[in-house]
Give the backbone structure.
Amino acid sequence: MASFTALKAGKARRLPEKITSRRSTMYVPDFEYHAPNTVAEACAILAELGDRATVLAGGTDVLHKMKVGKLTPEHLVSLKNLDELREIREEPGRVVIGALASHNQIYNSRLLQRRYLSLPLAAHTMASNQICNLGTVGGNIVNGVPSADLPPILIALDASIRLTSARGERTLPLEDFFYGSAQTRIEPGEILTEISIPDQQTTGSTYMKFGLRRSGALAVAAAAVSVQVSGDTLHGVRIVLASAAPTVLRVTAAERSLIGRRIDDELLTEAGNFAAQASRPRDSIRGSAEYRKNLVGVLTKRALRKAIEEGHA
């Protein structure tokens, strides 16, 4: 880097020849850019380049990682031309969300607002409007971070995903996609192409999180819930936690304990306690493990109550 001369109080001084902090430079390292026009073409490029290539969707995470030196691909394979992956549509037996649908597309989707309002509301809590215009549901899933907002509510709604590569396609339940912090079961050369939410008997669902700011903050803890209520009895329930373990956590023990029981405050408190006990949060700058466990219990109880009340509306 060339040096610069600065003037201060009439005296010249030399600035350092090199800025050593990667975070302060925020330069994107050199790479070769590819913009295929079809999914098949994108898969073929990824198959040829192997681990030298990284997929670029919205870019809100990939470009940041490149700027701070956490990611240094030789090639970026942009999906920007694959408009078919931006669709949100209704098909017999399911709702399909293209992996390139942005957070704002999900928030503004009339279909999702009508069928699964909890998902648009979760998307609305994620980040600033600028980020929500760029960030994609596929990127939010593939990053695999335990604080991501969309995977918990999608899992609560029994979503599955389709992964496509030059070898073919495969589908799997979203809850099976994660196995550790930022660790997923996506294989080399694969692209997440769609998310599918099946038709179901759910009567209510919700996503609640606590962050250190009113909006746009990472979750200190969060709970997503879907329920099937008939009369005053809970016939089905799914409880999924974020920022409560190294990965998104479904609390099946709590779910089993609730099925077939009469709904009252004692039952909801018990479910919150089950969720808190099952959680495995860590101490972080956003909160201690003990604090986050307490939040899990409170948020689970509140989310259950809201989802149940939605079913009685």
Observations:
- Confidence is low (pLDDT under 50) at residues 1-24.
- The chain has three domains: 22-78, 83-198, 204-311.
- Residues 83-198 form a domain with the Uridine Diphospho-n-acetylenolpyruvylglucosamine Reductase; domain 3 fold (CATH 3.30.465.10).
- The CA atoms of residues 155 and 175 lie 6 Å apart.
